[in-house]
Amino acid sequence: MRRTKRIRAICAELLPCGVFADVGCDHGYCTQYMLGNGLCRRAVLSDISAASLAKAEKLLGGYIRAGIAVSVCCAGLERVPRETDEVLIAGMGGDEIADILEGGFLPPVLVLQPMRNARRVREFLLANGYALTRDFTFRDGKFYDLLRAERGTATERQGRERAYGEKELAFGYDNLHAPSADFAAWLAEEIEKCGRRIAAAERDVPALRGRMQLLREVHDETLRNLR
Ligand SMILES: C[S@@+](CC[C@H](N)C(=O)[O-])C[C@H]1O[C@@H](n2cnc3c(N)ncnc32)[C@H](O)[C@@H]1O
Questions:
Q1: Which residue, 49, 79, 134, 200, could crosslink 148 as a Cys pair with Cβ 3.0–4.6 Å?
Q2: Residue 90 Cβ contacting ligand 1 at under 6 Å
């Protein structure tokens, strides 16, 4: 099985569990990884689109016939069993991911790969009793954010919780505290984009100037910490 770097990066964040669900599974590659490596007892494949779900049903037909995997066509978590231990939601917008969780239920472990607005996802998770145990940016052609969140009582979260301030919410905890070359490249690209917007604006835009200054500060700090 040869999968993209993005799919491999997502799979690397998945923990062994009892019941695993892939919401918006499309092809079903991540569930194939979980089942194929014996990392979950049962799996739920779900997608809002019957055509997308059919791809996963084809790939994982053997597991479905054996009763180890089930497929459900639904929006978000509507038909995903509440006893699910770990839920993956990848390749959707951050607002959509937060809305799905808000309208559904909160499983013990989440692996999330928002396509935009990761900040909304971070804020939602922290406000709902999750410790963010992984939160970083990686590059596979484009840049992606990847988060793992674990829920529990305050005592259970102790030792796993990491302090999120304004910068961690905006950029992701691991990017700031254990920076990578991919994050540095993302910052360089954002600085360039911001520069183009400033040049195109016909007047001074303080918000853009402020963003540029912040990006440069974080970029300089990242390069210092990378060396
Ligand atoms: C870009 S694909 C991502 C597929 C896979 N998760 C991945 O990361 O490669 C998004 C998938 O999510 C499904 N989807 C979009 N909104 C959804 C929702 N509210 N509930 C369930 N599935 C949804 C789409 O039908 C599509 O198959």
A1: 134
A2: yes
